[in-house]
Write a structure and sequence with these properties.
Elements: E1 6-11, E2 15-23, E3 29-38, H1 45-48, H2 53-72, E4 77-82, H3 84-88, H4 92-103, E5 107-109, H5 112-124, E6 134-140, E7 145-151, E8 154-161, H6 165-171, H7 180-194, E9 208-212, H8 214-224, H9 231-235, E10 238-240, H10 241-252, H11 256-259, H12 273-286, E11 291-294, H13 299-309
Parallel strand pairs: 1-4, 4-5, 6-9, 9-11
Antiparallel strand pairs: 1-2, 2-3, 6-7, 7-8, 10-11
Helix pairs in contact: 2-4, 5-13, 6-12, 7-12, 8-12, 10-12
């Protein structure tokens, strides 16, 4: 009798992601279904310390959509993980209560270290022959950015900083077109946080830089002009620094309405994509790294891989 699949939900600050998969004898995952929806759960948390009722209700509506797929695949287990927004908000218990009441699911609020670990393991699992390579994995989300350094699956160091696409956008009042002084000011904010990471000076071009998370996968999708999101094509994408700068300038010049016409740019990211791009550009400029490889896999994949291993 075939094994029933498991599901993991990554409840982030800006979006929620669903993965349904089974474990393969090789130790990898067989991906059966993935979904992504915007929740904006973390909007306003930095300012007020609270998640807004309308954002929590939107997240519950997204989870209802996810449950339809979970039921369709007869998942034997459902894991719900939460990151920066739920870590920071004073009313996280309220959101946990809503999820428990509506679905009967438990929520695991991950520490920054756990988030970095799972993001790293998920991201590198997209690459073949990764066992003896040195990686730097950058997973920049809505509310935070995790940076993890390792050799294959052996993690050497990990860190988390409270800068992400949605948080930086809030800092600027969701300004659509950023002038050069805006950009330089944001890069300075990111730089100040990054330099607090103890191993920051060890990040260099001798290691393989891998990006995961919505910003970098969206940039890869735009680079390919994707009509329909294809994770396998994303996983084979390498972007150099000049290409990312060109994408930044191209998007920054457009109105929100014009951005939605760009192939590969999902609705819901149009007002934060430039801010997320600044995080990656700051890292690449400061550490003089010219190339980043993109992984369509992330926290949810690493979390499930770890669960299956146990």
């Amino acid at each position: 009798m075939p094994e029933k699949p498991s599901a993991v939900i990554d409840l982030g600050s800006h979006s929620a992601l669903l993965l349904i998969a089974v474990s393969l004898p090789s130790g990898d995952l067989k991906l059966l279904h993935e979904d992504f929806r915007i929740t904006r759960l973390g909007k306003g948390v930095k300012r007020d310390g609270l998640m807004k009722s309308e954002n929590m209700d939107r997240a519950v509506s997204v989870l209802e959509k996810f449950k339809e797929a979970i039921d369709e695949f007869s998942c034997r287990r459902v894991y719900v993980t939460a990151t920066a927004a739920m870590r920071t908000a004073k009313n996280s218990d309220e959101m946990i209560g809503k999820i428990s009441e509506h679905f009967g699911w438990e929520v695991e609020i991950l520490t920054p270290e756990q988030e970095a670990t799972y993001s790293y393991l998920g991201a590198i699992s997209a690459f073949k022959n990764f066992k003896n390579k040195e990686f730097i994995v950058v997973d920049s989300g809505g509310g935070s950015t995790e940076i993890t350094m390792g050799n294959g699956t052996d993690i050497k160091a990990r860190g988390s900083v409270p800068v992400g696409a949605a948080r930086l956008a809030e800092e600027m009042g969701f300004k659509v077109t950023l002038c050069s002084s805006d950009r330089m000011g944001l890069m300075q904010i990111v730089k100040n946080e990054l330099e607090k990471i103890p191993f920051w000076n060890q990040l260099d071009s001798t290691k393989v830089l891998v990006g995961s998370g919505g910003t970098i996968t969206t940039l890869a999708a735009i680079h390919h002009g994707m009509e329909k999101y294809d994770p396998e094509t994303i996983n084979r994408t390498a972007l150099d620094k000049d290409q990312i700068w060109k994408l930044y300038y191209r998007i920054n010049e457009l109105s929100l309405k014009e951005r939605l016409k760009i192939k590969g740019l999902e609705k819901g990211r149009e007002d934060v994509i430039t801010y997320g791009t600044i995080v990656y550009l700051t890292i690449m400029e400061l550490r003089e790294i010219d190339l980043i490889r993109v992984s369509a896999r992330g926290l949810r994949h690493g979390y499930l891989l770890s669960k299956f291993k146990k």
